TrEMBL record:
Coiled coil: none annotated. It is found in: Cytoplasm. Cell wall formation. Catalyzes the addition of glutamate to the nucleotide precursor UDP-N-acetylmuramoyl-L-alanine (UMA). This is UDP-N-acetylmuramoylalanine--D-glutamate ligase. It is an enzyme of class 6 (ligase). Keywords: ATP-binding, Cell cycle, Cell division, Cell shape, Cell wall biogenesis/degradation, Cytoplasm, Ligase, Nucleotide-binding, Peptidoglycan synthesis. Pathway: Cell wall biogenesis; peptidoglycan biosynthesis. Residues 311-424 form the Mur ligase C-terminal domain. Its EC number is 6.3.2.9. GO terms for molecular function: UDP-N-acetylmuramoylalanine-D-glutamate ligase activity. It comes from Pedobacter albus. Belongs to the MurCDEF family.
């Protein structure tokens, strides 16, 4: 019998992980990347004896596939993806592929904002409670690579809308939808409905035995829920109203009740993650833990001692009574809104970079009430000037992290916060958002 041919498009973390698992499962594997492949991934593919190509897609080597696993970064409009679809060759995501080969249960977390934080917090709670649990998806090590080499009983997966678009048979045992706000609309014909429908794929294939956790306060979620048939048990969370079965906030105390065991209560001042948006993130993780019937003491302890991920509202230093915060992961306007909302002092805001057609309107009120100066860091800051010239007295242009930090240092007074929260991608001056965050931190340490 001829071996099935599996072609992997994109040789990043998910692609190389898929190749590893496919090879273990006896496929004839080929990896193709339209760009250059990073050295560590080339080394990994060579060690696996998997053939690959870079800087091109060779049709003859790809269009003979039985099935194709595509990196989430490649849009459905890419010529090679179109050619595969025309030939009727199935194109799936790494997550879809990996799930076929594991009996492990999954907690899948999606949303426009907060998913990395919520995924990490949920993983932290489950691991501390003694579950045999892995962490993957859009974060950390590839899910497929772990299915090939580990033996976890649970996985907490961060799932982006791009991944969901290529998931068909996959089912989440516990699905979490945090929020739906405009992001990546360029991949969805600039239609909010298309993007929302993509996010809602998180509940596909769920049955009455499964769980769906969502934010009752989120407008777009409410809209799409009216058009979606949900079979799973649902647990909403809200900070505006009392929820019988789920989580709510009352007198600065979170209440979580799943009616499987006793109610969990916790003061928001005891949460490791501060700020309104993090109350939502903590509630979502708390419901997951309660649904899995973990002990209240364990959940409280984990929600109190969690350390947030790097580059997301990360405390860097306090110098001359000015606090420096690195939120380089804020690559869209919404993330910057959350960052500003969580800071309780006057702010010198460092922002800018590659603007994805941003609409800055939603930031105007917060900027007017909290921001004393904006330090732009990017090659073209025209749109930031236009957006905020009436709201802030000082807007300065800078062209490096060093320069931006120096300028911010001189603009900040005692008790202020210098916040790097760019609202833009980083590719004009930096390799990626991590590089931008690291350069910011290094510049702060030099002060």
């Amino acid at each position: 019998m001829e071996r099935k041919r599996l072609v992997v498009l994109g040789a990043g973390e998910s692609g190389v992980g898929a190749a590893k698992l496919a090879q273990k499962q006896g496929f004839d594997v080929f990896v193709s990347d339209f760009g250059a492949i990073a050295d560590r991934y080339k080394t990994a593919l060579n060690e696996l004896n998997v053939s690959f190509e870079e800087n091109q897609h060779t049709s003859e080597l790809i269009l003979n596939a039985t099935e194709v696993v595509k990196s989430p970064g490649i849009p459905a409009t890419a010529p090679m993806v179109k050619a595969l679809k025309q030939k009727g060759i199935p194109v799936i995501s790494e997550i879809e592929f990996a799930k076929r080969y594991t009996q492990a249960k999954t907690v899948c977390i999606t949303g426009s904002n907060g998913k990395s934080t919520t995924t990490m917090l949920t993983y932290h709670i489950l691991k501390n409670a003694g579950l045999n649990v892995g962490l993957g998806g859009n974060i950390g090590q590839s899910f497929a690579a772990q299915v090939a080499t580990e033996d976890f009983e649970w996985y907490v997966l961060e799932i982006s809308s791009f991944m969901l678009d290529d998931m068909f048979e996959f089912k989440a045992d516990v699905a979490v939808l945090l929020n739906i706000t405009p992001d990546h609309l360029d991949r969805y014909d600039y239609k909010m409905d298309n993007y929302a429908a993509s996010k809602m794929r998180i509940v596909q294939n769920q049955t009455e035995k499964d769980v769906f956790i969502y934010c009752e306060d989120d407008e777009e979620t409410q809209k799409i829920l009216k058009r979606t048939n949900i079979k799973a048990r649902t647990y909403p969370f809200s900070i505006r109203k009392k929820i019988e079965n789920g989580a709510y906030l009352e007198n600065n105390t979170i209440h979580i009740n799943t009616h499987l065991n006793e109610e969990l209560t916790m003061s928001i001042s005891d949460l490791a993650l501060q700020g309104k948006h993090n109350i939502y993130n903590s509630m979502a993780s708390g419901i997951v833990a309660k649904v899995l019937e973990l002990r209240n003491e364990t959940i409280r302890e984990s929600m109190g001692n969690f350390k947030n991920i790097e580059h997301r509202l990360e405390f860097v230093a306090k110098i001359s009574d000015v606090t420096y915060i690195n939120d380089s992961k804020a690559t869209n306007v919404n993330s910057t809104w959350y960052a500003l909302e969580s800071v309780g002092t006057e702010v010198v805001l460092i922002m800018g970079g590659v603007d994805k057609g941003n609409d800055y309107t939603m930031l105007k009120d917060l900027v007017r009430s909290k921001v004393k100066a904006i330090v732009c860091m990017g090659k073209d800051n025209k749109r930031i000037h236009e957006a905020f010239e009436d709201d802030v007295d000082v807007i300065v242009n800078t062209f490096s992290a060093d320069e931006a930090v120096q300028v911010a240092y001189h603009l900040a007074k005692k008790g202020d916060t210098v916040l790097l929260s760019p609202a833009c991608a980083s590719f004009d001056l930096f390799k990626n958002y991590e590089d931008r965050g690291n350069q910011f931190k290094a510049a702060v340490k030099e002060l």
